[in-house]
UniProtKB/TrEMBL annotation:
Metal-binding among keywords: no
UniProt keyword list: DNA-binding, Transcription, Transcription regulation
Protein name: IclR family transcriptional regulator
Keyword Lipid metabolism attached: no
SMART domains in UniProt: HTH_ICLR
Domain HTH iclR-type: start-end pairs: 17-76
Taxon lineage: Bacteria, Bacillati, Actinomycetota, Actinomycetes, Kitasatosporales
Organism: Streptomyces argenteolus
Sequence ranges assigned to domain IclR-ED in this UniProt record: 77-246
Length: 246
């Protein structure tokens, strides 16, 4: 590997502020994938104490996190900031995608984001027969149960995932199945006859930034909604994700 001197950094790592240059260089290493501290030292030319101190500080800010092997990797805050920048595009597209999904399936379509320990409805298209099962935009529910909660937690960092599971009505094993399938479904979470199918919406870097759900009575969606409607939900989630990443 080639060692780079921070004193001779080419753009875009030359901000005129030394510590920012070093942070930018460290992030550029992680853009290639998870890296050990030793790898960061070799590639950047930073001293080991400096690289370690900088990585730890960025970890506290959630700009950097660690994988299961203890290697440093890009953290969730970067994706969250990108969502703030591009989120208006996703919501603008949701204004057409959700009604299309509702009309195609006959069930309510909603978009949720995670806010701390809550799932927040940020957009929705309700059916004329939804009645008391309508979920107004701005409504928040706990992350303790349901398909949406599972999708919003399944791809989170391990510490966030396991903290969520300790308070939830589903298990870590259930979230493993959600990651394997790429979707989650639940029955009777908020109402005894309501079925929900949810899929992840991915933003920059493939990070899950929202959950798209289809929800309605079992007479419309059946108790296994993924069989008939899984493709439609996943396709709609992909479209929303493209807007978020654009």
């Amino acid at each position: 590997m080639t060692t780079v001197s921070c004193a001779d950094l080419p753009l875009p790592h030359d901000s005129g502020v030394g510590v920012l240059n070093k942070a930018s260089l460290l992030l550029s290493v992680l853009e290639e994938g998870p890296a050990s501290l030793s790898t960061i030292v070799v590639v950047t030319g930073l001293t080991r104490p400096t690289a370690h101190r900088l990585a730890q500080a960025m970890e506290r800010l959630r700009l950097v996190t660690r994988d299961t092997r203890g290697r440093f990797q890009l953290g969730p805050r970067l994706g969250e900031m990108a969502v703030v920048v591009h989120g208006d595009r996703m919501l603008a597209l949701a204004a057409s995608v959700l009604p299309e999904l509702r009309d195609r399936t006959g069930a309510g379509a909603r978009l949720y984001r995670r806010r701390e320990d809550l799932q927040l409805c940020v957009a929705g298209a309700e059916t004329s027969t939804a009645g008391r099962n309508t979920v107004p935009v701005g409504t928040a529910f706990s992350l303790r149960s349901g398909a949406v909660a599972q999708v919003l937690l399944a791809w989170e960092e391990p510490e966030v995932l396991y903290a969520g599971v300790t308070r939830a009505r589903f298990t870590a094993a259930a979230l493993t199945q959600v990651r394997r399938r790429g979707w989650a479904q639940s029955f009777g979470t908020w109402d005894t006859d309501v079925v929900t199918l949810a899929a992840p919406v991915r933003g920059p870097g493939g990070r899950v930034v929202a959950a798209l759900s289809l929800s309605g009575p079992a007479s419309v969606l059946t108790r296994e909604p993924s069989r008939e409607f899984g493709g439609a939900v996943i396709d709609a989630a992909l479209r929303l994700g493209e807007a978020s990443a654009g």
